[in-house]
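Budget justification note: compute hours in this period were largely spent on complex prediction jobs such as the one shown. Inputs:
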Amino acid sequence: MFKSYRTFTKLVCAIGASAILVGLPAVGHAWEPIKPVEFVVMAGKGGGADKAVRLIQSIIASEKMAPVPFTPINKPGGSGAEALVHLKGKTGDNHTLMFTLNSFYTTPLRQPGLGIDIATFTPVARMAEDTFLLWVNSDRKDINNIEDFVKAAKAKGSNWIMAGTGKNSEDNLLTDFLNKAYGLNMKYVPYKGGGKVAKELAGNNADSTVNNPSEQLGFYEAGNTKALAAFTDKRLPLFPDTPTFKELGKDYVYYMQRTVVGAPGMSKEAADYYRELFTRVFNSDKWQDYRTKKSLQGDLLTGDALMSYWKTEREVHRVMLKNMGVIK
Amino acid sequence: MSVRTAELLMAMMMGVFSIYLMFKSYELPVGWIEGEGPGGGAWPFWLSLVMLLSCLGIIFNWIRKVGPIATSDKVYVRADVLTEVGAVAISLIVTVALFSIIGIYGSLPLFLIFYVRFLGGHSWMLTSALAIIIPVSIFFFFEVTLKIILPKGYTEPLFIPLYKMFF
Amino acid sequence: MLETLGLLANGFTVVFEPQNLMLIIAGCALGIFIGAMPGLGSVNGVAILLPLTFLVPPTGAIIFLAAIYYGAMYGGAISSIMLGIPGASTAVATTFDGRPLAKQGMADKALTAAAVASFVGGSISVVLFTFFAPPLAHVALVFGAPEEFALMLLAFATFVGLGGDDLFKTLFSISIGLVLSAVGFDIISGEPRLVLWDITGFLHGINFLILAIGIYGIGEMLWTVEEHRLGGGKSMLSDATVTVKRTLANLRELMTTWKSIVMGSFLGYFVGILPAAGATPGSLMAYGIAKQISKNPEKFGHGALDGVCAPEAANNAASTGSMLPMLTLGIPGSPTTAILLGGMVIWGLEPGPRLFVDHPDFVWGLIASLYAANLFSVLINVAFIPVFIRILKTPFTILAPIIFILCLIGGYAPTQSLHDVWLMVIFGIVGYLMRKLDYPMAPAVLAIVLGPLAEPALRQSLIISDGSFSIFFTRTYSGPIMVAALIFLFLPLIKIVYVKLRKQYA
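Corresponding output:
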C-alpha cells in the first residue's frame, strides 16, 4: 500500500515536472514551435490563397522543415474581417500565422469599427505578388488590343459586364480605374471567388475580367480566353506579347500580395524562427516552380522591410478607396 | 404548462426574434436599387417579415383554436421528462463551457461519468472504461490522424510531450 | 468510342498496380469512417489528408483522395440512417426516410438500400462520365447566374409539400432557414450583414452543419431521451437484426425501387456537373421527384424505401459529376472538389480544358479509380452493416453520451470555433422545443443549404439584366428550367383544380 502510494507520488511529481519543463521555453536552444501551428487563410477553400497555403503546408511537411504540422484553417468571413479579428485575439501567441491578400489593407480601412491596426501584426515573409491582366473571351475576334476593347465597351455602355470577386475587392478597384482612365461605363458584377469569375468569362456570361493568371491559365491555354494588357511594371514572361498599361500610356501598376503574417506581439525568437523557415520555403524548388508556373512576381520581403511595404501599400489603398468614395 | 400555452409563447418569442432580424437587416439597404435589383439587406429583411407574418398566423390560429396543437390541453413537458431532458441539456451546456477551461479531455470524461453513471446507472467499471477509452480514441482519430486540434484550455502544457511523440 | 475504351483500359492498368489498389482500399475504408462521423464529411477527409499524398506520385494521390471522397459519400448515409444526423449536406435527404426506417427496426433494410443505391448511382454516373465528358463540359461552361437561380428554384419547387400540415409553421421554417443563411457577409455589396448582437463569430455565417447537427443531432437526441423516458422499457435506438433471410427479403424489396434509383442517378449526375451546384441540390431534388412520382407519396417521411434510394443514388452520381467541371474547367462543383483542385496544383497539374489532352494517364487513371472506388466502397460498406446494427443495440444510456460527444466535436471540427459549438447546442435545445409543437424542421435545413446558392445568383442575374426578371426566361437553359420550376411549384394547385373540374363534369 505504502509502496504503491510512493510510486504514485513519484509519478505525479514526474508528470508535473515534465509539464513545467516543456511549458517553459527551452534554454540554450533556438526557439522552435512546440505544438501544431494554426495557419489561418484569409479566404475560402479552393481560392488562390488557399491553394498557396496548402502548397506551403505540403512543402514544410515533405521537406521536414518544422517539427510540428502546420494546419490550415479558412476564415473568409467579412472579407477577411473574421481572420483579422481572430488573429488580434491571439495577441502574444507564438503558434498562429495568417496568409493574407490585399484585403489585409482594405478591410481595416473600410471597417474601422474592428479596431485593427495592421502595423501591430508581426511581419513574417512576403512570398510573392500576384499579377492582374485584362481578359476577354477569344470568341471576340473584333477585340485584339486595348483600343478595340475601349471601342467595344463604349458601344455597349453599361451593358458591358465586368465580372469580379466581390464589391470593393481588388477587381473592383481595377474596374474603377479602367472606367475612369478610358471613360467607360462598364457594369461590375461580383461573384464568389476568382475561379468562378474566370469561368463566367469563358462561358460568355461576362464580357471581360481582370483575373490573376493562375485563375485564367486553364482557359487561356485551351484558347478560350485572351489577355489584352497587364497591370504590371514589365511584361510577364508567360505573356510576352501582352503589353503593360504603362506601355499603353497609363501609369497604373497593381499587385496582390501573398504574405505570411504572425499574430501581434509574437516573441522575437518566434518571429525570427518563422522568418528563417519561410525564407527556406521561398527558396525551395517547389515554391519557385509554382511562382514560375503561376506567373507570380515580387521578391522575398521579411521583417522591417515588409512592415514598411505594408505601410506604403496601406496609404495607396487609402487613396484608392477615397477616390472610389468608399471611405471618407 | 399546457401545449396550448407553449404554442402561444413560442410564436410570440419567434415573432420578437423576427422583428430583431428585420431591424438588423435594415443596416443594409432593403429596397430596390435602380439597375441593380434588391439591396444587400432585402433578402433577409423581407424573409424576416414572412417569418413575422407566419408567427402572427400561428397566433391567429391559436385564437381561433384551430389545429391539434392550439387545442391540446396536454402537458407540454412532463415534470419527470423535464428533469431528465433538462439534466442532459444542462450537462451539455456545462461541458461546452468547460471546453475553454479544462479542455475537452477534462470535460468529456466528466460528461461521460455524469451520463453513464448517474443518468444511466451503469457500473463504475464500465463508466471509467468509457471515460478513458473515448477521449483517447478521440485524440488519436481527430488530432493524430486528421490533424484537427481540439480545444485544451489550461491543460494545453500537458499535451506538449504528446505532440512531440505523435507529430 | 473505341478510343475511349482504350484509354479507359490504360486507366485500369494504372489502377491495378498493387500500390494504387492498396490506396483505393485504404481510402474507401477511411472515407466511410470519416463520412459516418457527424460533422465530418468528404471535405474534411480530403482536406486533411491532402498533405499526406505527397508521399506518392500524383496519380496515386488523386486515386487515394477520390477513394476517400467516394467512401465518405457512402459513410454519410450511415450516420443519417443510424443516428438521424446528416454527416454532410449531401446526406440530408437520406435522413428524411432513413431515420424513420431505423426507428421502426429496419435499419438493416435502410443501410442495404443506401449501399446498393449508392453503388448503382456511382456506376451509372461513372459510365456517363466516361463517354459524355466533353459535350457536358460545354453545358457547365455556359451555365451562368440566371441558370443557377432557376436550378435552385427548381430544387425548392420539387420540395413543395415536404413540410407538415400547418402552413404557417412550414412557411416559418423555410424563411428562418433562408434568413439564417444570409448571416455573415453579403458578397454583392461587400458588407458584413446580420452580425447578430455584433458577435464576431457570426461573421463567418451559420454553417449548414451547425444547424443540421443542432437540430438532427442534439435536438433529436433530446427527443429520444424523452421517448426513452416515456417509453420506459425501450432501451435501444433500433432493434434491427441481420440474417440471411432478412437480407434477401430486403434485396427483393429493393428491386421495386429501381425507378427511383435510376431517376436519382441520372438527375444527380446532371445536377452534379453544374458548377456551384454539387451533390446537395441533386440529392434533394431526387428526393422531391421520387415523392412526386411515387404511388404512395404519403409514406415519404415515414420510412419510404424510395426516399432513401433516390437521394443516395443521386448524391453518389453527383459526386462523380462534380469531378467534370473540376477537371475540364478548373471550377469546383462542390467544396470537396475545391480542395482536390488545390491538390492538383500541388502536384503540378493544370486543370482546364487541356488536361484531358496533356495528361491522359492522370485523367483516365482517375476515372478508372472511380469504378474501383465505387466497387470497394460498396463491399466494405455491406460487410460492416452487421457491425453497425450491433452498435445500435448498445444500451441507450451508453450510446447517447457518445453521440452527444460526436455532435459536439462535429460542430467544432469544420470551423474550429467554439462559437459554433454554442450555436449548435442552442439550435438543438430550441429545435427540440419547437419540434414538440410540430414545427417541421426539414424545410429550415433545406433552406439554409440552398439559400446561399440562390440569393447571389438571383442578384447577379438582376444586376446583369438591369433589374428585369425576363432574363430568367429568355436564355437557352434557364428558360426551360424556370418553367419546370414553376410547374412543380404550382403542381399541388393544378392537382386541386384538376380534381375539382373532374368532379364538376363527371
